[in-house]
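Postdoc handover notes: sequence design on the structure in folder B. Input tokens:
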């Protein structure tokens, strides 16, 4: 995955590299946030030692009552040795803003009532890149 998996934690998902191809068409600037997108289970440091691993989004994670967890989440992207692209959004709630209403009930203390065109575009960019650079079948 490129990072370590953790239990409960919450954060705003923040754009760290707006000039990266993954953010193309989103109009996101450095520091722009998607409120409450990082949640429940999340992924973060320590990161794997994959060649070319990039951190595209990162930030501090908090508990249910806003208490600091002393950890960060980290959205990662890298190309694996066989040429396959590996994208880790760092959150299990990524799907919650891909359509509106969400495909199922919102999680406790969070209400994803609207889709987010920025996350939809990032997802499209990632999938298009995966299709374009798909490793040959062996």
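Designed sequence:
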């Amino acid at each position: 995955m490129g990072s370590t998996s953790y239990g409960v934690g919450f954060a705003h998902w923040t754009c760290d590299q707006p000039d990266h191809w993954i953010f193309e068409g989103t109009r996101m600037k450095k520091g722009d946030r998607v409120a409450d997108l990082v949640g429940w289970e999340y992924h973060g440091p320590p990161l794997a030692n994959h060649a070319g691993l990039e951190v595209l989004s990162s930030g501090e994670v908090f508990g249910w009552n806003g208490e600091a967890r002393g950890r960060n989440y980290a959205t990662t992207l890298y190309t694996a040795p066989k040429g396959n692209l590996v994208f880790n959004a760092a959150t299990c709630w990524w799907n919650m803003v891909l359509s509106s209403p969400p495909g199922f009930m919102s999680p406790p203390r969070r209400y994803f009532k609207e889709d987010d065109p920025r996350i939809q575009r990032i997802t499209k960019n990632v999938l298009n890149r995966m299709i374009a650079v798909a490793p040959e079948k062996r």
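Context for whoever picks this up: Residues 4-132 form one domain. Don't rerun without checking with the PI first.
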